Amino acid sequence: MKSSVIVFPGTNRERDVADVLAEVTGTAPRIVWHGDSEVPQSDLIVLPGGFSFGDYLRCGAMAAHSPIMRDVVAKAKAGVPVLGICNGFQILCETGLLPGVLQRNASLKFICKDVWLKVESTRTRFTGCYNQGEVAQMICAHGDGNYFADVATLDSLEGEGRVVFRYCDPAGNVTPEANANGAQRNIAGIADPTGRILGMMPHPENAAEAMLGSVDGRKLFESLLAA
Amino acid sequence: MKARIRITLKNGVLDPQGKAIQNALSGLGFKGIEEVRQGKYIEVDLASTDEAAARAEVEKMCRELLANTVIEDYAFELEQRT
Q1: What is the ipTM of this complex?
Q2: Domains annotated on chain B, with CATH
Q3: Mean pLDDT for each consecutive 10-residue tract of chain A (227 residues)?
Q4: Residue A148 zone, left/alpha/beta (φ > 0; ψ -120 to 50; rest)
Q5: Does A23 participate in catalysis according to the annotation?
Q6: Is A205 a catalytic residue?
Q7: Do A105 and B16 touch (CB under 8 A)?
Q8: Model-level pTM greater than 0.90?
């Protein structure tokens, strides 16, 4: 499986995700600079975490208009799977590939901690190796992860089974206390209607080795291989 | 022309920063504050002196980049630069 990881000025988790992709797929991903105009032929495009363009104006707003994004959007629309993690999720929302927006955390604090996610949909390219309702432990590290969309959009996401991950407690209960950042309906990750584009705030790439405390994120990358 | 652009959160969108400012103002002893909403202010200097053209251009800037219309409204005034 060939994958490409896009790097913007201020991206900082590209090596984490490249490391996991190399280990799981057996092939090191290409690192692609945002100023390039074309993504090499890929079976997966990753928009990694970080603080592209210093989060100026709005998180992901500048990156969404980087030259490479025109080709990322074109390839995504042509069916190439795209994974946006953290800042990558914010960029996907700013490009309009995913609906809604990530607002400042309700607490106004940067949150860096373990979170538990309820897997709400296994019908995406990224979640086939999980069980429906499974609880996955991952790490989140963000200041703007508070998912917001209007009620009609939220209802249609729910109705189409596009809410993929929800913040929950370790036992799998989706409660206000388990909601890390104030996200509407505890939403931590959503997909496009085809299940080929996934945006999520927590970091599966940082939960893929036992040494780091959890391997629950590894299945997300294994799902891509199995799909 | 100079464009003075104000970007504000739509009604109904939670504004935790506005809430924090409100709490700080109350903490300083300011009374009777019913709500605080914060936003952004951006000035853009344009070479154009044609108001209609500048208006169309700034409108496009707001829609394409400066505001995220999922959660934000924008408004702007134009004036001739001196």
Answers
A1: 0.86
A2: 2-79 (3.30.1280.10)
A3: 97 98 96 97 98 96 97 98 98 98 95 98 97 98 97 97 98 98 98 98 97 96 92
A4: beta
A5: no
A6: yes
A7: yes
A8: yes
